[in-house]
Every structure is written in structure tokens, then in C-alpha cells.
Amino acid sequence: MESDNVSQIVSGSGSKTTPLRIRNSDNYGHAIPGYAVLNIGNDKAVDVQFFNSTSEEVEFFKQIKQPEQVSKTEYAEITSDSVSASIYSKEDTDKSGFYKFLWGDRYRDEYSTNVKAKVANLDTLMGGLKPFRKGGGTQSKTLHLKASNGKRYVMRAMKKQADQFMQSAIFKDQYVEGQFTETASEDLLEDIFAGAYPYAPFAVGALSNAINLAHLNPQLYYIPKQSALGAYNDGFGNELYLFEEHPSDGHNELATGNFTGEIVSTVDMLQDVLSDESKIIDEKEFIKARLFDMLIGDADRHQDQWRWLVFENDSKTIYKPLPRDRDFAFSKMSDGFLFASGVTLIPAARKFRKYEDDLKDVKGFNVSGFSLDVAFIPESSKLDWDEQVQFIQSQITDAVIDDAFNNIPKEVDPQSIIEIKKILKERRANLQKISDRYVKLISRYAIVTGTNKDDYIHVKALENGKVEVSLYRKKDDTIKDRFHHKIYEPKSTKEIWIYGLDDDDSFEVEGKISKIKVRFIGGQNNDDYKVESGKNIVIYDYKSKKNDLSQAKKARIKLTDDYNTNVYDYRKIKIMSIKSFLP
């Protein structure tokens, strides 16, 4: 059946039948045992066949997608080395005074300014590139390309796609792409996108270099329609693109030292880290990256905005952050009366605050990255944050900032560059205060994880209400090397959530925990608990598992087979409603 331009196939049952009602005569259905076969051809044609499982005869056939037509268009040979082009036309950015009052000035002039850009011939760029699939971003039109040496690259249109954003963010259950083309809704969204500084990614790389922070290397190209694009000429070409490495294996140039050349996603990295204590996140490097985010005003730091470089050092596997997609840096999305009011009244909109000299609302700004920070920086202290603040302030000098913005196309209004550099230097001076505010926020609720192997978790009450947490590997019931240690102070930490994860874990509490609440979440397999004093101790574990709680009767015990309660998910602690979430 088809609904909202989306074909849906329900194969039904191979043995049992139930009454069937067909509401639309264009749809097919038959209340007999059967199965469906979906055929996808090399020419990308798609059809479906429904078979009667008794007779093995085809009951119904339908062509869902016609064969992909090979373009017969002949494209002119690329002879120019460079062209002058803009992201938006002057007509797109010409707004009335009242409109500007409502929506602000944004960076409209930068979007409609013609800039000189190198022309890319995909047959020769990087030794020759072949496109192989479209990207799946929420705002950007992206094409993935592969070089002859196997390295991957991406080309991302500088002009954001309003209909693509509406499809992914607003009409999630209804196919609408293309339905808003040349409408007022599309015009408004494209104008809102102009709150992001379009050439920010080209300055961020040089700033990152100054503090030895890994980064991609975006370049600005005008990519014309050309034979090398093949069937992708229908949706790509004849505009400005950001071209850069795809953060995947093989790009050894992105780091030095003991870099293995392997690059993994946040999901894969986390799975590896939880599997064994020898696999760790470089916490200091991640702190540096997060402070840099706050320095440049990049609030869009959810888990997919990170990749992880894999390093081997003796017996350790170390994961270092590789931030990607810097489109949000230096933005002024809240420019104008309406958006300025929105970021004040709507909690979820607070991350869209205008880039200014100070960042007082660290809670609103970090709504996307907060859960990652709590989960990925479990051992570090305020001293570690202070150390990175001082390093950033000493390395990103005025000269470094001035040099970084020399990478912006020369035709762009220098006044906006002067203003951004001024704010950046002022925010650099305020970075210690910004860091202090955020450390205070993320320290309130701590998350500690064991491994998916046998662990021994020891919690000890110290003087003045402090709590010491130590984690050890347990092999053949023998306690081995410690792999986690931290002392928490009640003036900064309210709760500690400790996840044992899989396998048989042992939890022990020594002394009376007087001021900080400690929650144990045992996880899978059979765990044992020993609690000297039950004050401020809460235990969560599976009701159906054979756990030994005989020496933990003084603690508050909550046994349930509810999956969400027992499973580890770093996203459970959310910055806007932190108190409402349980392990």
C-alpha cells in the first residue's frame, strides 16, 4: 500500500489467516497464507511480488520504483579554475525593516555575497572521486565520494535544505520532501538558517591546530554539474560546497603518534569502552574539546557530532575525540525579537542564544552535550578543567585568531569578521568563569560504569561526608588492578550512579554514607552486595536473577525486571529535567 508517497509492504502470515479489510482500492491485500518478495535490480528498479504459499503462484505484482535512467546529458568540459558564486541570491536576503526587527539581521549579507571559489573536477580531485551515496543529514545536502585509494570524502552544500529539515524534524511520520519548494515556509526556514555563520568551519581548523585538537580539513569549492556525478547530477552540482574528509578509517593524516588509523562512532566507542577496562577515553582531550565548543559557541554537540580516533599505547586502547560539523560556531540564531523571546521562554531553544562575550547559560547551551560529558568524564576533577582552560587561553592567542580568519573568503564583509574576532577574544578571557559554571553543573550527578566482565565495586565513606569510589577487575574471585578511582565531595555532588553492567559483580559499601546518595544498578547476571550501613544506599537489580543481597538488608532495595531501570544508557540524565530521571 502507499501513503504519503511512501510504499509500505506488510507480508502477512505464512500459515495463519485473519479477515482483511482494504480501505483503498489502489492497495492490494488477500486473506490467504503467503509471502512477499522485494526485488531490487542493478538498475535500481524495485518491484514486489506476493506469492500464494500453497500454490507458489504470483498473486500480485507491482512496480514500486522505475529503473534509474542513465543521464544522456553531455556536460561541458571544466576549464575554469575558479568562479564567483554566492550561497543565496541578493533577492533571497533582501528584507524589510520590520522583518529584520522580528528576525534580526543575521548573516544575510554573508550568504548573498559572491565569493571566489576554486572549481572542483571530481575526475581529478584527490586523484579522482566517485560518488556512491547520498548523506542523511537533517539540514545539509550531502554526497559521499570515494577515492581510488579507498579513502572517503564528503561534499556538503553550503545552502541548507529547508524541506530536508522539515522532513526530519517536523514531519517525521509523513513524507513531505519537495512539497514545500518555493513556499513561504521554505523561504522562512532558509532565512532562519542564515543565523549560522556560513564560513565558520574554515576558521575553526586553524584554531583547533593551536591547541592540538583533532579536526577535519574543510575546503570551499564550486562543484559544477559534470559527468563524474553521474545520476547524482539531478540533485547536486552548480553551487558552493564544503568538501572534507569523511571521518572513517584510512585518514591517517588526521593524527600522529600511536594513531592506528581507525576511526569509530560514539556508539561503537562506548561499546568498546564498556567491554574491557583496558579501553579508555582520553578525558583530558575530551575536556579540551568541550571547552573549545564553548569558546567558539558550538552548541550542536550531540553524539553523532563526534568520531573517535583509536590509539594504541602499551596495553591500553585510547579513544580521542574528533569533533565534526562546525556549522553552528559563532552563530546568532536568536537575532531579532521573535527568536530572542523564544530562547528566553522555551527551554529547548536556549542553545540557540546569540554568540556573545560571555556564556552564562551553560545549562541551556550544553543541552545536546551534557549527557555525554557526565558519562565520558567520570574521573576528572575541576583541576583538570582548569588546566585545559589555561592551555587554551595560552595557545589561542590574538595572532592565532587573526590568522585563522584569514581562511575566510576575502570578499566576505570584514565587519562581521572583526565583530566575531572581538567576541572570541572576550570569551577567551571569560573561559575560566564559563568552565567553573559548567563543572559545578555536571558534578551534581555522577555516573560510574564497570565493564561487561566481573568487577569489584568498592564505596567507602570518608570524613566530612566525602565518598571514595574504586573499581577493580575481578578474575576467578580475586581482586585485580584498580581501573577507576575518584573521591566525591558533598558540596559539589548530590548523587552517584554506579552501573555494574554484565557478568557477576560484587558491590561493597564501607562505612556510613552520610551526605551523598549512592545508587547501585547491578545489571545482568548474578551480583552480590555487602552494605555496612544502608543510609543513602539504593540498590536496583533484576527480580528474576539470583543476586546475593543477604548482606545488604540495611540498604533500600528495588528489584524489578523492568529493562529501562536496569540497563545502562548515558542519556538517562538530561540537563533540563535532571531530577526526574532514575537509573
What's the N-to-C terminus distance? 42 Å
Structural class: alpha/beta
Multimerization state: single chain
Mean pLDDT equals: 90
Bin the helical content: 10-25%
Major sheet attributes:
7 strands, mixed
> Strand order across the biggest sheet?
6-7-11-12-10-9-8
Report on the structure:
The protein is an alpha/beta fold. Among the domains are: 2-65, no CATH class; 82-245, no CATH class; 445-580, no CATH class. The protein contains 16 helices and 27 strands. A 7-stranded mixed sheet has the order 6-7-11-12-10-9-8, with no helix packed on it. The longest helix is centred in the C-terminal third of the chain and has 16 residues, at 414-429. The radius of gyration is 28 Å and the shape is globular. Residues 165-172 have low confidence and may be disordered.
Short description:
The chain has 583 residues and is of the alpha/beta class. The chain has 16 helices and 27 strands.
Attribute tags:
six-stranded mixed beta sheet; seven-stranded mixed beta sheet; 583 residues; alpha/beta; single chain
List the helices and strands and how they pair.
Layout: E1 2-3, E2 6-7, E3 34-40, E4 46-52, E5 58-65, E6 82-85, H1 90-93, H2 97-103, H3 108-112, E7 115-119, E8 129-134, E9 142-147, E10 152-157, H4 162-169, H5 184-193, H6 201-210, E11 219-223, E12 239-245, E13 259-265, H7 266-275, E14 279-281, H8 283-296, E15 306-313, E16 316-323, H9 337-345, H10 362-365, H11 370-376, H12 382-395, H13 398-404, H14 414-429, H15 431-442, E17 445-449, E18 455-461, E19 467-475, E20 478-488, E21 495-499, E22 506-510, E23 517-521, E24 528-531, E25 537-541, E26 548-551, E27 556-559, H16 563-566
Parallel strand pairs: 7-11, 14-16, 17-21, 18-22, 21-23, 22-24, 23-25, 24-26, 25-27
Antiparallel strand pairs: 1-2, 3-4, 4-5, 6-7, 8-9, 9-10, 10-12, 11-12, 13-15, 15-16, 18-19, 19-20
Helix pairs in contact: 6-13, 8-12, 12-15
Protein name: Surface antigen (D15)
Biased composition (Polar residues): 1-18
Organism: Winogradskyella psychrotolerans RS-3
